[in-house]
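Morning. Coffee machine broken again, so started the prediction first thing and wrote up yesterday's gels while waiting. Chain of 225 residues, entered below exactly as on the submission form.
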Amino acid sequence: MNTSLKNTARLLGAGLRALLVLTVVCGVIYPLAVTGAAQALFKDKANGSEISDAGGRTVGSSLIGQSFNLPKKDAGDPDEAAVPDLRWFQPRPSNGLGSNGVNLQYSLILSGATNRSADNEELIGWVKDAKAAVVADNSTRTYKVRPQDVPADAVTSSGSGLDPDISPAYAKLQIHRVAERNHLGVERVAALVAAHTEGRTLGFMGEPRVNVLELNTALKDLGKG
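Came back before lunch.
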């Protein structure tokens, strides 16, 4: 019995010591080392790829899209339709989960796609309505948008519904409207879009893109200049 108790106590003591050592190593030293290395080598990414305006105020993350809408007339009405603020470049639609009420406007509660086929009547209706709105919103007194010029990302959501980027074609389509609404020259706004257009990663991965939040932050600062 004594030998058995001693062996049990020894095993329990060894297990406890292992627990304490692994807790310190895996729960304290390792996280601190990883956090320190991330802050030293990849500080921007480690902190969430934050975007700041000219005043140093954090306005969002370059990884998550945002909506740019007018304030609701009734803030307490969840069913009131959002109206885009046409002073700003607009992101791609974010009705990733359709009419179930989740993620209609870049909500971070849940992300996902419509899971509807290309010939689904409801999806076709969404696309037609979105195209008509893009044409109407972006046509100005001196610039008319043709339906055939509307790119796919202007009328469809991304797989997650949270994509922060749009295609250069969609950004260029919005230049005249943004310039007119902000009383800026078309050339200045076009130059701003060109400066915020990123090419393919490593020259061959993905597609050229424009980060909408970064572009609108620069537009805000341009308007102050």
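Strands lie at 50-52, 58-61, 165-166, 197-198, 209-211. Going to sketch it on the whiteboard this afternoon.
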